[in-house]
Amino acid sequence: MVRDMNHQTKNVCVIGAGPSGLVAARELRKEGHKVVVMEQNHDIGGQWLYDPKVEGEDPLGRATIDNKFHKVHSSIYESLRLTSPREIMGYTDFPFVEKKGRDMRRFPSHRELFLYLKDFCDHFGLRGMIRFNTRVEYVSFMADSDDRRLRWVVKSRDVRAETVVEEVFDAVVVASGHYSQPRLPAIRGMDSWKRRQLHSHVYRIPEPFRNAIVCLEEEGRVVFVDGSSVIADTIIYCTGYSYAFPFLDTKGIVVVDDNRVGP
Fold first, then answer.
1. pLDDT tens readout for residues 62-93
2. What would the pLDDT profile of 203-259 be if each residue is shown by its tens digit?
3. Residue whose C-alpha is closest to residue 247's, from 127, 191, 188, 166
4. What is the CATH number of domain 11-181+242-262?
5. Cα–Cα distance between 134 and 13 in angstroms, integer?
6. Cβ neighbours for 185, distance < 8 A, ≥ 6 positions apart
7. What DSSP state is assigned to residue 65?
8. Where are the domains of the chain?
9. What CA–CA distance (Å, rounded) separates 186 from 179?
10. Taking a C-beta distance cutoff of 8 angstroms, is the pair 220, 257 a contact?
11. pTM (two decimals)
12. How far apart are CA 198 and CA 237, in angstroms?
């Protein structure tokens, strides 16, 4: 890459320390920029930082939807394995190779990919750039700037404290992912159905469903469009996720419309 002779070092905020945020931070630092990564969780990994604790959450994720700022956790379940081979799941210049004493399968468990991301982070010395347990609550461009350069105001909070920190950056990289806010269908009878409902976002292990009929009238019958029906003890909605940037205020420049992000 030919470096721009007019290159100026910029202060850049990267939101999220998952796979995209980590490599963005590395490349920006390589280009000579000053980078701060803000990560809401206690470690790197994003979706690959498995969290088994989902007790106390709304099983449909509605608390997540109604609450602007919420505890973000991974959506992966305990027994998940990669559906793509490791050869295409790693970075080009840092291959996802087998390591003795770890999961050496071509389609390894989710923990193996998490450990790979930790290896990447440690190999390139990225951990010192990351502020863990830091939730970004507001991002917007500055209303006035003396030198006419676009700058961004970022307000963040340590999740263990109440103090809000306000900083100004030359650029912001949003790498906060897409798999944290459940997208729910609109089904008649859904609100009045008495049995168990949950979104796959909070599914972790199968044991709670042992000896249950798993697959909306009150007796547990689920009726389909073609008139057929089944009796269900539990409904799990595997209906995907919505794009959500509750912290981002771009005065209407960046919007989410019909689950699409665009200007």
1. 765 555 565 678 999 999 999 999 999 999 99
2. 999 998 887 767 755 567 788 888 888 888 899 999 999 998 999 999 888 888 888
3. 166
4. 3.50.50.60
5. 12
6. 237, 239
7. H
8. 11-181+242-262, 196-237
9. 19
10. no
11. 0.88
12. 6
